[in-house]
Amino acid sequence: ISFILTRLLSCLLLQAAVMLLLSKGERMCPASCRCEGKIVYCESGIFQDIPENITTGCQGLSLRYNNLLVLLPYQFAHLNQLIWLYLDHNSINTIDALAFHGVRRLKELILSSNKINYLQNNTFSAIPNLRNLDLSYNQLQYLQPGHFYGLRKLQNLHLRSNGLKQIFIRTFLECRSLEFLDLGYNRLRSLTRTTFLGLFKLKELHLEHNQFSRINFFIFPRLTNLQALYLQWNRIRSINQGVPWTWQKLQKLDLSGNEIQMLDPAVFQCMPNLQILNLESNKLSSVPVEAVAAWTSVTTISLAGNAWDCSPSICPLMRWLKTIRDSKDISMICSSPKSVQGERVVDAVRNHTTSLITLTSTIKESTPMNTMSPTSPEAPTFIPELQFEHMAFHKIIAGSVALFLSVSLILLVIYVSWRRYPNTMRQLQQHSVNHKRRKKSRKQEQDLNSQLQEYYLSYHSNSETMDSLVNEPRPCTCTISGSIECEV
User: Fold this and answer.
1) Are 77 and 102 in contact (CB under 8 A)?
2) How far is CA 456 from the centre of its chain?
């Protein structure tokens, strides 16, 4: 009996211990937070400090969308099992140099969308296993080498939209494993040859939406593994290579939205494996033949939004575009000469080629073989310059439609006026009839007046006639103009 009681008592104690542990585990999830195993989500927007009672075995902590202001020394030291920490979308403006001491296992740290304007040296040196660091959408203006000291395993670094003005030399020297670097949407004006020193494994570099006016690719001499370079929407007017060296792995280059007027063939001769090239929205009028010849591996190209000169010099480019599958040339518009302004480059080149073929065949048919001068067998044939005015089919259609619509509108106005205002239309008709009658009566009066002549009286005065008129009655004859005769 004592044995049975002993076993029963031990079972009750075990159950009580289990219940105590379970209740303790429940209490380890802070209020207003959500816990899923070893992951804690405190994103309610009410926290101004790190919540208490977070279990020490926590591996993931999200404090996004709160009101954190300052990160104090050893703030996360009790969470030494943390693997990722999200602190974005707060109001953090100050980070102590010892804030991340004690979380050596941390691999991902998100600090984006805060108000950080200054970083102390060695801020991240206590987390050497960090793989992903996001500092985008803050207020950093300068980067120094000490900011990223000790981050030799870092692979992704986000610094977008900080208002960066300057990057000091050897800033990324410790980031030997970096593969992705985003410096877009800042205020960078220039770079030096030592800016990217040490980034031997970098594959993708973002420099878009900065303030570069020219780019010398000699500033990237050691980025031997770079595969994608983004330089769109700067103020770049010229690009050049400087000292030639080969980018063996560069596959994508984006230069759209700049002010480039001329392409340097040497730049593309150093990129033998370039596959995707974007040159949209620049000021290009032509592309040198040498540059086109260097695009041996390009499979996707964008050339729209430039001021293309549709003279015969553009023919090599158009011939090359026909050889690639993804040629986004449908939006290429002619800017000059005036005869083809606004037309697509493809149509202008096709019409020009057709005109030349027609002209050549016409000249050959009209010129007999034996009309060559025997005294000058090698005299060159002179082909006069003819100006061809091409009218596209869509212009004819548009004109016809406009004419049809105009006539229809006039007829519609007349019909509506006749239906809605019949009295007015009858008055107009009566007025027109009266006007015609008045005009006809005036014409008849003018014809009658032209037929009447001025009457006049002709007579001869002599003595005999006068005596006869006084002394004795005799018949006399007078003649009145208008063939009227009377006897007296």
Assistant:
1) yes
2) 94
Q: What is the DSSP string of 87-144?
A: --SS---EE-TTTTTT-TT--EEE--SS------TTTTTT-TT--EEE--SS---EE-
Q: Measured between alpha carbons, how far is 410 from 414 in angstroms, rounded to an integer?
A: 6
**Which is it for strands 142-143 and 94-95: parallel, antiparallel or unpaired?**
unpaired
Task: Report the Cα 60 to chain-centroid distance in Å.
Answer: 41
**Residue in this structure with the two tokens 């700067």, named with its chain if needed:** 234
Determine the straight-line distance between the first and last CA of the chain, rounded to whole angstroms: 189
* Nearest in space to 349 (alpha carbons), one of 283, 286, 277: 286
Distance separating alpha carbons of residues 253 and 248, to the nearest angstrom: 13
Beta bridge partners of 62: 41, 86
* 135 vs 108: CA distance, rounded Å: 12
422 preceded by a cis bond (ω within 30 of 0): no
Q: Which residues pair with 487 in a beta bridge?
A: 477
Distances (CA, A) of 156 to 35, 159, 179, 436: 28, 10, 6, 92
Distances (CA, A) of 429 to 143, 416, 438, 443: 88, 16, 14, 21
Q: Which of 218, 216, 220 is nearest to 238 (CA)?
A: 216
Determine which helix (DSSP H) or strand (DSSP E) holds 156, and give its type and residue range: strand 156-158
Ramachandran class of 442: left when φ > 0, alpha when ψ lies in -120 to 50, beta otherwise: alpha
> pTM for this structure?
0.70
b/e map 394-411, b = 16+ CB within 10 Å: eeeeeeeeeeeeeeeeee
Q: What are the residue ranges of helices labelled H in 324-392? A: 345-366
Task: Answer yes or no: are the C-beta atoms of 267 and 295 closer than 8 Å.
Answer: no
Q: Which has the closest alpha carbon to 279: 307, 298, 260? A: 260
Query: What's the CA gap between 40 and 124, in Å, rounded?
Result: 23
Give the whole-angstrom CA distance, residue 378 versus residue 382. Answer: 12
- Indicate left, alpha or beta for 161 from its phi (over 0: left) and psi (-120 to 50: alpha): left
The tens place of each residue's pLDDT in the chain, 488 residues long, gives 665 666 666 656 666 554 544 444 444 789 889 999 999 999 988 999 999 889 989 999 999 999 999 999 999 999 999 999 999 999 999 999 999 999 999 999 999 999 999 999 999 999 999 999 999 999 999 999 899 999 999 999 999 999 999 999 899 999 999 999 999 999 999 998 889 999 999 999 999 999 999 999 888 878 999 999 999 999 999 999 888 788 999 999 999 999 999 999 999 999 999 999 999 999 999 999 999 999 999 999 999 999 999 998 898 999 999 888 665 566 899 999 998 889 988 888 887 665 544 544 544 454 444 444 333 433 333 333 334 344 556 677 888 888 888 898 898 888 887 777 666 667 777 777 788 888 777 777 676 665 544 444 344 444 444 444 334 444 545 444 444 444 43
